[in-house]
Specification:
This protein has about 240 residues and is α/β, with parallel strands linked by helices. The protein has helices spanning about 1-10, 30-35, 35-50, 65-70, 90-95, 100-115, 135-145, 160-175, 180-185, 195-210, 220-230, and strands at about 20, 50-55, 75-80, 120-125, 150-155. Helix content is about 50%, strand content about 10%. The longest helix is centred in the last third of the chain and has 18 residues, at about 195-210. The mean pLDDT is about 95.
Length: about 240
Amino acid sequence: IVELLERRLASPHWTGAVINIGGVTDSYQPVEAREKRMPEILRLMIRYRNPITISTKSVLMLRDLDLFDELSRLTYVGIASTVTTLDEPVRRVIEPGAAPSRARLEMLREFARRTRAVVGVHSMPVIPLITDSTENLTGLIEATREIGADYWLPGTLNLRGLTRGMFFDCVRQNFPDAEAGLARLYASGHLDREYRRMLYEKIRALTAFYGVSTDYHRKLREWEEQTRGTQLSLF
């Protein structure tokens, strides 16, 4: 992996675009504790000063904080963790094997405090009738502000194909009172439009009240503008 990545980064055709590390699967799965591939990848990013974004549900990323810090002093680094609920019994059902929500938030606090990375909390998906309560959303927004994160990014759930059957099996077993309502809201496979509108209306009101940004790209845009300005000043 590292060799292939270095060939790409060393290519004269490489533009230095932001690389989303682990966009499809978590880069800090349990096997990473033994394999230690991420430190090699991060050292490569440092050598080429290549900007990155990364999101994880693991606190193992703290192991590499010094490398993330070094890279963040050279270029853009975006660090996020998915936190969908502060209710630990619910979390254990919908995110089995992941680190506790509070542990992930504390990890993000360390990155916000000790690096120059842009730090975000990703609450995706918000699950209707399970994690969509005002109490849960407020707790997540307040936690985002309290740890010093730069933004909070919520998102909704789509249910199509095999995912739908697996999801409803889990709901039937663990949240039976929500099954009928979820079946109505996802009759088409997509979240009901009116429910979605009301959810985002509530989210806008809560984030405005607590002064928390949901603009995932704002800091990246600022960095891109600053980088362009620096390049132009060289001519």
